[in-house]
Every structure is written in C-alpha cells, then in structure tokens.
Design goal:
InterPro entries: AB_hydrolase_1, AB_hydrolase_fold, AB_hydrolase_sf, Epox_hydrolase-like
Radius of gyration: 18 Å
GO molecular function, one term: hydrolase activity
Organism: Micromonospora vulcania
Distance between the termini: 39 Å
Number of domains: 1
CATH superfamily: Alpha/Beta hydrolase fold, catalytic domain
Number of helices: 14
Protein name: Alpha/beta fold hydrolase
Keywords: Hydrolase
C-alpha cells in the first residue's frame, strides 16, 4: 500500500501525496498528472515501475493544487508558474536528496518545463531523466481538436469564455450527474479508438474532484506557455516523449517539437491512441518509463548530492 500524506505550500494550500517504495531508493520517479485529473491516472505506471525496478526506485504521485484530494487555492495562483514552484517544494519535502526522474502528462509535462525554467539550479541538481506524455511546450499552438482550423478557433473562443466563468466559481465542483451525462464528450475529447469503461469512470471521477476554479483558472496559462528554449538546455538528460496520433489536445506536432528540442529523446507515436496514453497504451508508456529509468540507473550517481533550496521565482 502507498504511503499517503500532505505537503503544505507557503500560501496554505495542502497537496495530497502518495509514495511507494523506500525513501532510500537510488532514484525517485515523480509522476505529474494532467489538467482536471489526479494522481490516480498513473496507477498502471506505479505498479509497473515497482515491478521493474524493485527497491531501486521510489514512485511519488501528487494531486496538483485544486485537483483531487489537494485543497483549493486563490485564483491568482492557478498558473503553470505556481505549479512549477509547487513541484520544487514537493521535491524538497518528499525527496530532499538523490536523483529524480520527472514524468508529466499534459499539464504535468508543462509543470516540469516551468520548474526547469523558474528553478534552473534546483532542477539541474536533482533531475536525472525526463518523460513527457501527451504534452506540449507551445501552449495551444497545435490544438485544433481534430477539426478544421476555423471550427477550432470557434471552440477555443467558447472554451476560453467558459473557463473565465468557471474560474469565478471558487471551490465548487461539477455535479457528478452532469459529468456522467457528458461522458460521451469526455470520451471523444480524451480517448482514441479504444477505451475501457473503467478508464472513463476514473477520468469522470477525477474531473468531479477538481474545483471549478482550477478547471477554469489554469486554462489561460496552459494556452499561453512557450518553453521550447527551456527544453533545449536539457538535451543532455535521458528522455522520452510519447503521443497518440488521435490526440485532439496535444497532437503529434507537439511531441515532435519537444523531440526536436531534445535530440536524444526517444519519440513514440501510438497509432489510434488519444490523449490518455497512460490508460490507452500502458505498455508503451511503461516501456518508455523503464527505459529512461534503466539509463539513469546505469550511470553512477554524482559523488555528492545535497539538497538545493528552491530558488526565488524569477
């Protein structure tokens, strides 16, 4: 059973954290979930990493502020910049020493990029490997929802307007009955050709736990982020990027631009898969994770590896 606890942020937000494995493991893998989801979306990867590496790896997941079992936050902190700061604080609290592999899905991948941008010294001292799953470094540049650009622009306008309304709804959560009615839309937006009913139920449950403030509040920051230059400085790290060719939110050009910025990255395009690769294609995601983990474990750790305090955000 995972260890469950909370980590407090300086502004009073409390993040729900789960950890599996020994704190003395050689490497800690930190798995960051996507927008409106929570740490449960990684359950197949947590099990796979534990089986593949045994005592060599500790696996940590946590619910981002305003998501899952973490507490809600003030609207001005519903930004990727704040999520990058939160990640630095979680690392200091949960795994203050040793090497870390950062794994991010969608908003989680963007959080990793923001952490690297805002805390470069902290990032460099701790991070030994990267895995990007269905994410982007270019905001909504490539997002057309699988539709024509003209229709995509109309959908984005409606989405942006709706996000502004939701952001002002505070800590309220969407009624479960409404989300159940919207399951066909959720399935179309997030999944590709194949989808297990249990996965739809898990995603619907996660959206039901996310505060309306977080659903609406993070939208502007997600759409505006551009961090390809930040990624280019990380080319020395073992890395992998995965995307589904039916992904309507972060289509293949998003992963291709990440791989171009990180030339040593192993790029995997999954035919017929949508945005939820960790559920739709767990074998491919698990193989990428264990591949990066083995590359990290094969390299000797630095002779001295101390804790680097989180830098003041610039």
């Amino acid at each position: 059973m995972p260890e469950r606890f909370e980590v407090g942020m300086p502004d009073g937000v409390r993040l729900h954290v789960e950890a599996t494995g020994s704190p003395d493991a050689q490497v800690t893998a930190v798995l960051l979930h996507g927008w409106t989801l929570d740490g449960r979306s990684w359950h197949r990867q947590v099990d796979a990493l534990a089986e593949a590496a045994g005592g060599d790896v500790r696996v940590v997941t946590y619910d981002a502020r305003g998501h899952g079992r973490s507490s809600c936050m003030a609207l001005p902190t519903a930004t990727l910049a704040q999520l990058g700061d939160d990640l630095a604080a979680v690392l200091d609290a949960v795994t203050p020493t040793g090497r870390v592999i950062l794994v991010g899905h969608s908003m989680g991948g963007m959080t990793i990029m923001e952490y690297a941008h805002r805390h470069p010294t902290h990032f460099a001292a701790r991070t030994a490997g990267l895995v990007f799953v269905s994410t982007t470094a270019e905001g909504h540049t490539h997002t057309v929802y699988g539709l024509s650009p003209r229709i995509a622009r109309l959908i984005r306008l409606a989405e942006t307007t709706g996000a502004g309304v939701l952001a002002r709804c505070g800590s309220w959560r969407a009624p479960r009955a409404l989300l159940n009615a919207l399951q066909p839309s959720i399935r179309w937006m997030l999944f590709g050709d194949r989808c297990e009913p249990a996965d739809i139920r898990l995603v619907t449950s996660a959206v039901a736990r996310a505060s309306l403030r977080s659903i609406g509040g993070f939208r502007a920051s997600i759409g505006a982020q551009h961090r390809l230059a930040t990624l280019a400085a990380l080319a020395h790290l073992p890395a992998a990027a995965l995307v589904g060719d039916r992904d309507r939110l972060t289509p293949p050009p998003c992963a291709e631009s990440i791989a171009a910025a990180l030339p040593a990255t192993d790029l995997t395009v999954c035919p017929g898969a949508g945005h939820m690769l960790m559920m739709e294609r767990p074998a491919e995601v698990n193989a990428a994770l264990t591949g990066v983990l083995r590359r990290v474990l094969a390299d000797p750790p630095p002779r001295a590896h101390g804790t680097t305090p989180a830098e003041t955000a610039r």
